[in-house]
Amino acid sequence: MLATGTLTGAPAQAADKVTRTAECQGDWLPGTPTAEDVMKGEISLVGLPAYKLGKSIDWAASPYRNRSWEFVFQSLRWMGTLVVEYENTGERRYLDRATEIAEDWVAGNKYGAKGTPSYVWKDHPVSLRTQPLLCLSRHVDASWLKDSLATHAKLLSNPSLYKKGHNHGIDQDIALMGIGCRYGRKDWASLASRRLTGTVKLDVDAQGALMEQAPRYAVYVYGRLQVAMTNMKACGRKVPGEIAERAEALKDFIAHATMPNGFMVPIGDGSAETEPKMETGTPKQEVKTYRAGYVFGRTAWGKPESAYYSIRFGPGMKFHGHEDHLGVTYYAQGRDILMDGGFHSYEKSSYRYWTLSPEAHNVPTVVGAKFRPRTASKLVDTSYGKDRQAFKLTDKAYGVSRTRSVLVNHGEDLMAVLDTASGGKKVSTIWRFAPSLKVVSNSGGKVVLADGKFKVTLLQFSSCDQVGGQKVERGGRLGWVSPTYLSKQATNVVVSPAAKSLLTVIVPGTDSPKVSCSGGKVTVDGVSFSAGLI
Questions:
Q1: Does this UniProt record's set of keywords contain Isomerase (predicted)?
Q2: Is 68 exposed, middle or buried (0-12, 13-18, 19+ CB in 10 A)?
C-alpha cells in the first residue's frame, strides 16, 4: 500500500511507440483551444477572446476578471490537448510542451503556499485538473507529477471538501477513482465508489429529475455518469444498480426539458443555446410532472411547430436554481413567446443577482408584501387532457398564500393564467416576451406584440372585467433577457396593474382574438374554459 505522498506507475511510453490510453481518450477535452492554439501560446476559454500565454506563463492571470475563465484556466484541460495530440500523431514536441506547462504549474501552485490563489485548489479545478495530469502520467514518469497527483487525491478524499449531491461531487469521485485505479490505491477507489452512489441518489431523484434546479446540467451529469460507470468497469468494479438506473432515467428528463426547437428550456442557470446532442429516445407522455418541481408539456413529439410550456414549483432555491417558483415559459407556433430572464454568468455582479430574482421571471408578486427567498411551493391540483392541461400551484413566498392556476390549450393555441393572494392582498404579474416581439399596441387591457407578420396578444381580466393600465418596459429595470452566456438583450416586459384577481390570456398567432367572459366562463376564438381554470 502506498503512502499518500508516494505514487508509482507504469514506465513512461517510448516516444516512437505511442499508444492511445484510456486516460487521454474520451470527451473530457474542451472544444477550444486546439493543440495548435496552445502550441502558439493562445488559449480561448469559455467563449472569451484568446489570451496570449507567452513562453513563461503567469498562473495568477485573470485577464477578463471572470470566475469561469479562472477555473477553466486552472483545470489545465487545455494542456491536456497537447498530450492527446501526442498520442494521435506521435510528435514529441506536443508532449514536451505539455510536460513543460504542467511542471511549471506544479512548481508555481503549491497547495497552501503563499502566493497561490485560493481558487486554484477549490474542489472543481482540483477534480477537473486530475484528468489531464493522469493523461500526462501515462507518458511522463516523474516524481513531481506523482507527488502532485497524491496531493490532489488527498484533497479529493477529504470529507470536509466533498460536494455531496452535486455535479461537483460526481467530478470529485471520477477524479479520485482515476488516481486510485491508476496507482493501485484501492482505498481511494473504494471511497469514490461509495460516495458516488450517495451523491447520485441526492442529485437525481427516482423520477430521473436533476435536483440542481437547472435542467441543462442534466446533460452534463448524464455525460459524467457515463464516464464514471466506464471507469468503474475499467477498474474492475461493479457499477451499483442505482447509479445505472438513475442515469438512464435522466434521459427522459432531458427529453421533456428540451423544447421543440431542439434546445433546452432555459430555466435556472441554463442558457437558451443548450442543445443536448445526445440520444434520449421519445418518452411515452407529452406532459410530465416531476416532484422535483417541474411541469413540462407539449402538443406532440417530433414537431417543431408544437406548443411547449414549463411551470416551476417545488423545493426552495438552491445550487443552480433561481427564484422562479410559479413561473412559466411558453413556446408556440415555432417560436419563443414567454421567456425567463435567462442565465448570464456566475460573476458576482448586480445583473447576475437580478437574473436570480423573481423580477427576472414570469411570476405573480403580492403588492405591498416582502418577498421571502428560498420558499418552497406546491402543486396542489392537476387536470390532464390530450388537448388541454391545467395546474394549480401555491406558496407563501410573500407571507400570505399566493396561488396560480395555469391552463394550456393545444390546437387552438393559448395559455391562460389566474393569480390571486389570500388576506385581501392584491397581486401584480410580470410577462417577459421574446426579444424579437415588439409592442405594436397597448390599450384597454390588451397588449399586442409582433415580429413581422407574426402577432401575439396578451389580455387581462379581473372577475371578467377587462383590466387596463399595463406598463411595458424595454430595458430599464425589468426589460432584459440573457439568452446566451455573457449576453444581455433588451426585451419587452408587460407589468400588470394591481388587482385582487388577475386572469391573463396569451394568444399566439393573432392580434384580434374574439374574447368573451361571463357567467364564470371565458371563450377565446371559440375555445371555452372556466374562469377559475381548474
A1: no
A2: middle
